[in-house]
Write a structure and sequence with these properties.
The chain has about 230 residues and is of the alpha/beta class. The chain has seven helices and eight strands; from the N terminus they run βββαβαααβαββαβα. It has one domain: 3-Layer(aba) Sandwich (Rossmann fold), CATH 3.40.50.1820. The chain is globular and about 40 Å long. The protein starts with a strand and ends in a 14-residue tail after the last helix.
Length: about 230
């Protein structure tokens, strides 16, 4: 079991709002993974918290926070406002960089469902010097649109093998991306990874990717070597 330097709720004072987050920093943390949840979800998402706990046991700090205020979350259009969610992620990274407990940690994103689009959009805006790794679980990277080609950060797309429509969208998005990228299928899994062992496999794939690209001293080229 990991020993934690910090594990508690925090208040993220952003430019126009204050949002609640749950921050966990294991001793000797290898990096910090910021979660971007999907529409209709929150920092309390049981699936994201499962992945976060898996990452914590592997030595990664995690930040799960509500990207929207309670009032904003009542509006359907806010839940799908990729630009707004991207702005919140960028402001959260600024908060991380100025927080004494987190400012020295390398940063990665984990996006689920529509949260993958805001994670990739924020990674494109911030650049590969600030965001070192991105993982999408059952995500909609296609919603990031034209900025996919601007992503410099190594990105892993995890999709359920039975989630055919989302798989097709992920393949299309992967083709547009010019960075290091990979797509992993979780066999016999549907969109929510509810099948036995599916979420565990997704969590392990994410952990392996963060170990490769987010660990201390990791350096990576902007593009994959081509044969």
């Amino acid at each position: 079991m990991a020993n934690f330097l910090f594990k508690d709720s925090v208040q993220l004072a952003l430019q126009r709002v204050q949002l609640t987050g749950d921050l966990a920093i294991p001793e000797g943390a290898k990096g910090l993974v910021v979660f971007s949840h999907g529409s209709g979800s929150s920092r309390l998402s049981s699936r994201n918290r499962f992945v976060a706990e898996h990452l914590q046991r592997s030595g990664f700090a995690t930040l799960l926070f509500d990207l929207l205020t309670q009032e904003e979350d009542q509006r359907q259009e806010s839940r799908f406002d990729i630009q707004l969610l991207t702005t919140r992620l960028i402001e959260a990274v600024n908060w991380i960089q100025h927080n004494p407990a987190t400012r020295d940690l390398r940063i990665g994103f984990f996006g689920a469902s529509t949260g993958a689009a805001s994670a990739l959009s924020a990674a494109a805006a911030l650049g590969g010097d600030i965001i070192d790794a991105v993982v999408s679980r059952g995500g909609r990277p296609d919603l990031a649109g034209a900025v996919l080609a601007d992503v410099q950060t190594p990105t892993l797309l995890i999709v359920g093998g039975l989630d055919e429509q989302v798989l097709a969208l992920n393949i299309q998005a992967q083709e547009q991306m010019q960075c290091i990228k990979d797509l992993e299928l979780v066999p016999d899994a549907t969109h929510l990874f509810e099948e036995p062992g599916a979420l565990e496999m997704a969590a392990q794939l994410a952990t392996d990717w963060f170990r490769k690209y987010l660990g201390p001293g990791k350096q990576h080229p902007l593009h994959q070597d081509r044969p």
